Amino acid sequence: MVVRYKWAGTVFDPEFNDARWNDEWLAVPIAPIPSGEHPDGFRVERQPLEVAEIFGRHYRMEPPFDCRLLYDGDGLLWMSDTPQERMMMYNNAQRTRGHVLIGGLGLGLYPQYAAAAGATGFTVIEESPAVQAITGPVLESVLDVPLMVYTGDVSVELAGPVTQRYDTIFLDIWETLDPVHLPWINRLRNHALRHLVPGGEVLLWGYFWMVSLFVDACHQLLAVKPGQRAAWLAEGAASSPHAVALLTPVVQHFDDVDDMEEALEWCRRHIVNLALPD
Ligand SMILES: C[S@@+](CC[C@H](N)C(=O)[O-])C[C@H]1O[C@@H](n2cnc3c(N)ncnc32)[C@H](O)[C@@H]1O
Q1: Domains and CATH numbers, the chain
Q2: Whose CA is nearest to atom 25 of ligand 1?
Q3: In the chain, is it the N or the C terminus that has fewer CB atoms within a 10 Å radius of its CB?
Q4: At 2, is the pLDDT very low, low, confident or very high (cuts 50, 70, 90)?
Q5: What integer pLDDT is reported at residue 1 of this predicted model?
Q6: Distance from the alpha carbon of residue 199 to the mean position of ligand 1, in angstroms
Q7: Which residue minimizes the CA distance to atom 3 of ligand 1?
Q8: Are strands 99-103 and 121-126 parallel, antiparallel or unpaired?
Q9: Cβ contacts of 248 within 8 Å, gap of 6 or more
């Protein structure tokens, strides 16, 4: 079932799955960010990837995939442009139209795929000056559509007054695809919808995947007898206290489950609508 959520003619489609396998991304040239030392101790390394994990499966890359790894000032791996990342950015680019607001810049994959797919301009809000210094010049050298990059917190901008409207807003500021982020992401989404032109669309990296993980967890939970579910969660079946908190309304809502499909549909709707308060 396709569920579309509309606010004042704008669209967010929780059924859009950007984790769809494709190999079309291979045909779009991506300018690599330069390897080496960058300001504030940031470092980019080039690494030939012989085996890549893509959507939970391992694939041998022939020839090895030329990957870039960005390490932060503490030497921690922060970002990489793996095949999975590229596929997901490519898929989001195919849904993209017109003038795009992006938060945040990262390694600049998405704007390059979106430009190739016909986007007409980009406004980027990126909180890290180091990322801007590393990725900004590369993008400026390859994009033939306008690009404006601002330093800031995109969540603050989205919560603030509407000064400009966009055809597409693409957000990718969470570090992992953990469903515990969803209430916060849903608040970002609700704020973002206000900044669209009628018919505009909000795209959220990995959203369908995160919802599916939540629904899978609900399925496991609801397979446990009603009286034992809370204890099952408390004993560590959920991955973290945040996950327990996310699943507790499911424990409270259901007693015996006669129709699992119907129950899981409730779970799906629940998580898509659950947003942190302003
Ligand atoms: C995973 S990367 C984005 C990758 C990007 N989509 C690409 O195509 O390469 C996430 C980026 O968001 C930035 N970021 C994180 N939180 C932010 C925030 N609240 N506002 C703006 N940028 C943010 C990070 O500094 C990082 O550059």
Answers
A1: 5-21+84-205 (3.40.50.150), 24-79 (no CATH), 209-273 (no CATH)
A2: 128
A3: N
A4: very low
A5: 42
A6: 25
A7: 106
A8: parallel
A9: 230, 233
Q: Could you tell me if the CB of 70 is within 6 A of ligand 1?
A: no
Residue 114's Cβ-count burial label (10 Å; 0-12, 13-18, 19+) is buried
- Residue 4 pLDDT exceeds 90: no
Token pair in block for residue 12:
């967010």
Which amino acid is present at 64? Answer: P
Listed in sequence order, the residues at least 6 apart from 87 whose beta carbon sits closer than 8 Å to its beta carbon are 19, 20, 21, 22, 25, 54
Q: Average pLDDT for residues 52-72, to the nearest whole number?
A: 94
Ranking 4-18, 162-176, 180-194, 229-243 by mean pLDDT, the lowest is: 4-18
What does each C-alpha distance from 212 to 91, 216, 228, 244 come to in angstroms?
17, 6, 23, 17
Mutate which of 33, 42, 173, 187 to test ligand 1's pocket (most atoms within 8 Å of Cβ)? 173
89 lines ligand 1 (CB under 6 A): yes
> Residue 79: its pLDDT value, please?
94
pLDDT at 138: 96
Q: How many CA atoms lie within 13 A of 248 on its CB side?
A: 9
pLDDT surpasses 60 at 119 = yes
Nearest CA to ligand 1 atom 1: 106
Q: Which helix (H) or strand (E) holds 100?
A: strand 99-103
Give pTM, 2 decimals.
0.95
**C-alpha separations of 214 from 2, 44, 228 in Å:** 18, 34, 19
200 lines ligand 1 (CB under 6 A): no
